[in-house]
Amino acid sequence: MKYPNGIKKTYESKVSYGNRGMTLEEDLNISNEYYRDTNEAIIYKKPTPITIHKVDFPSRREAIIRDARFGIPSTTDYNGIYRGKYIDFEAKETTNKTSFPLSNIHAHQITHLCRIIEHGGIGFLIVRFTSFNETYLLEGKDFFQFIDNEKRKSIPRTYFQKVGKLIPIGLRPRLDYLKYIEVNNENK
After folding, report:
1. Domain assignment of residue 120, given as a range
2. How far apart are CA 4 and CA 154, in angstroms?
3. Which of 78, 92, 175, 187 stands 20 to 30 A from 41 (CA)?
4. pTM of the model
């Protein structure tokens, strides 16, 4: 486009790819903060285990990590306590419109969730289909029933719609997933 006095204007579209895939995590972190503030539950995101190999100290107040590697494989994303029960879950997002690929969950995470449930804890998946902005809670028993009885390499979205619990986006908490969890004990 030509502007007066020979001024050239160009517009660059600045697209940030830095936090893609973080919206579900952000929503869960905000929800968990609300649960802690209202003393409804104590649930935290687990840190990713990293082993630091080399650090540079350019000054006393600054440390720059030059080499770090993932340590032992992490189990699931979140854990805590709710109504006297241990709670543990994995949160995943998918851009796939028809199904959730099982390759998104590692074998050690599946084993971990299974053991949580075997020991009387609460274990489940929260999966967001980003194309539809739909977030589902899939209880551990339903997840294991699917992988034990199906030969598929993905869980169809229709299975989430039929068996899972659709979690609407709200204000406080952002994702009220706890209202879909049944706790069978006397401390209710």
Report:
1. 21-180
2. 59
3. 92
4. 0.76
